[in-house]
Amino acid sequence: MNPIFLIFGSLGGTEWLLIFLAVLLLFGGRKIPELMRGLGRGIREFNDARTKVSDELEEGIKENKNKKELEKSN
C-alpha cells in the first residue's frame, strides 16, 4: 500500500480543518501564498530533475545497446 495514503488517507474533514487552522496560525494569512508558491516551485524542480535523470538513463541504455550491436556485427 502507498505510504502517503497511510499517512493522509485516514484523515477526515475535521482533521484537515485543524491542520489548516494550525498552518494559518503559524504562518499567518499573508505568508500562506508565499509558502504555496515555494512548495510549487520545489515540486516543479523535483519533477524536472526526475525527468532529466530518467532521460539520461534511457539515453545511456540506448548507447550501450548500440555499442553491443556494433560489437556483434564486427
Mind explaining what this structure looks like?
This protein has helices at residues 3-8, 13-73. It has 74 residues and is mainly alpha-helical. The protein has one domain (3-73).
Q: What's the gist of this structure?
A:
The protein is mainly alpha-helical and 74 residues long. It has helices spanning 3-8, 13-73.
Give the amount of beta strand, in percent: under 5%
Low-pLDDT runs of 5+ residues are none
Query: What is Rg?
Result: 22 Å
Mean pLDDT: 84
Task: Tell me the helix content.
Answer: over 70%
What's the domain count? 1
- Counting helices, strands and paired strands, the structural category is mainly alpha
The largest pleated sheet is described as:
none
Q: Give the N-terminus to C-terminus distance in angstroms.
A: 49 Å
Order of helices and strands: HH
How many strand elements?
Answer: 0
Judging from the principal axes of the Cα atoms, what is the shape? elongated
Our count of helices gives: 2
Give the topology:
Elements: H1 3-8, H2 13-73
Characteristic terms for this protein:
single chain, 74 residues, 2 helices, elongated
